Amino acid sequence: MKIKELQISNVLSFKYFENMDDATKVTFDDNLNILIWENGAWKSTVLEIINFIFKRVLFTQFIVNQDLYSQKNTIKSDEKKQILLPKNNQSYSGFRLEPNWNTDEKSQTIKITIKLDAIDIGNIQNLIQNKEKLGVFATKYANHSVTPDVTSETEYVLTINLSKGNQTFSVNISNSSDAGYLYLVNYNFYKELINFYNLENSESPISPLYESFTLISGYRNYSAFTPTIGLQTSTATQQIQWIRTKDFSKGINAIEQTEPDIFSLVRLRVAEKHYDLFGTWLKEPECEEKANQQTFLSKINKRLRLVKLEARIKLTDRAKWQYSFQFYDLKRNQPLPDINSLSAGQKAIIHLVFEAYWRGDLKGGLVIIDEPEVHLHHQFQNEYLRVIEEINKDQECQYILVTHSESLINSETISSVKRLALNQDGETIVKIPRLWTEQKILIKILDNTRSTYAFFAKKVVLVEGDTDRFFFKSVLQEKRPELNQEIVFLDVGGKNNFIKWKEFFEEFGLIVYCIGDLDSARQIIYWDTSNTKEDKLDSTVKIQAFKEAHSDLFKKIKKKYREKIYILKDGDIETYLWISKRGKWLPAIINFCSDNLKDFLSDKTNEKSKEILSIFKQITK
What we know:
Layout: E1 2-9, E2 24-27, E3 32-37, H1 43-58, E4 62-64, H2 66-70, H3 77-80, E5 84-86, E6 108-115, H4 118-129, H5 131-141, E7 155-163, E8 168-172, H6 179-185, H7 187-200, E9 213-216, E10 228-230, H8 236-247, H9 261-277, H10 284-292, H11 295-304, E11 309-317, E12 322-329, E13 334-335, H12 344-357, E14 366-370, H13 378-395, E15 398-402, E16 417-422, E17 428-431, H14 437-449, E18 459-463, H15 466-479, E19 487-491, H16 498-507, E20 511-516, H17 521-524, H18 540-549, H19 553-560, E21 565-567, H20 573-576, H21 585-595, H22 597-602, H23 607-620
Parallel strand pairs: 3-15, 3-16, 9-14, 14-15, 18-19, 18-20, 20-21
Antiparallel strand pairs: 1-2, 1-6, 4-5, 6-7, 7-8, 10-12, 11-12, 12-13, 16-17
């Protein structure tokens, strides 16, 4: 399954819209989507909404009464039908979906467009092929009845209305009787029927349904790996079903006490293959070799070579059907003595690769990864993204990465970026720009200067050069250090670049300011683009002559404040600080900020200091 678009009205920082067609919209590409946000832009709201939709609205929950099932051979048929019941949970309690603080009394609505993909079609075909077998178990253990069928549609629009008073929800969908939609809302019903069938027909089990939705939470525990797996008390199929059922109830902020479930799922699949081969004409070493060479594990190991590892399983206790799951160090050509000796970055890449390939050859599905940079060194963040790109060549998944890492934003990924920001009323807006060629070149400049961190700020202040950037950043640190994460300063390499950089960042919803030297007034105010060396206002005489030639200069400089453009009235920053124009300016600026900045800013008789503080008051308000 893939998400086409999501619209949100009156949920936390998302404002209220009377007409849902006008509501804040996030559109998603079929492959890679990178969601970034400024601090406080409530990115977790989007994740919580998606998690709520998949856990409560689409994949509705069914409960198995294990006590009754254990008595299935002694209880009456009416009691047997109480073994598998729909939970009918129309509550969104436990999900943080409060209304916007400005419209507490207004209705809350979520609208989502989804489409089925290859995984869903494969699951439906599996159900159709086994519908008679499953029908017997549905009649025996449930009052709920539904028959899988070929779907006539693959795209569905759901409108979900939240009721704050009792924290319940209702769903509107025009084609609710379509077989594809019925497959989604009965997914867990079918899954439990397959589980029952496999428990009672272990010799000829039905293949479990594949998951079309994976959420890798930001709370990942990579310190509790279990190196063994056992099949003595329950089959691999049973254990896989139990793990997936448990996983259904996890929220995005669930703190893991054990290893990610996917590690157990991969171990079980490999062990199951070995168990099935054992006792055939193959010898014991051949069974192990075949189990370790099956297609899905070969694909996993192909990707794990990136971190110089290979996964292998070994039968350690035949009496208990106990297996060890080892990682083989390809660099040292020996097994790892302790899986926990791997770095967090290696474990994170293993996690990603396992999630991608444990399902086998099916293509498609939705994978959401919350803060992939967690536990990852800067270098591994780039490797992680490269692994995703390589995987997607094979699998055609829809990936949604929710990140605060500038390492994942570059000239190659920028077209996949959707940025969540807050407007002046504190409401979330979504920016998905379509960049033209010259703007993509600007991204490459940000790559080379390692300045993509600007996308995660609220405000960007553009300055002409490195001396300006150091000085104004020092002023911010001196006067408003608490805004360091909110405001960034970027050197754009000269006044001629102000406008294109300003337009570029505004496309992503950032608030953009420009601070230029006096000679930038030629281009910005008087549209003089000649830009000759003689035009540079680098002396008191030239500055005075320029002012006399433009009697309306100060008035027009003041007017530019409305556009968030600030032109220094008396030259450049070196002139303001009485720094010699000879030699290297940056060391002189650094020394000034270290020794004299505090006195300069506190001098209430200094007009230049007062002008600087006036500009900062506008930027930091």
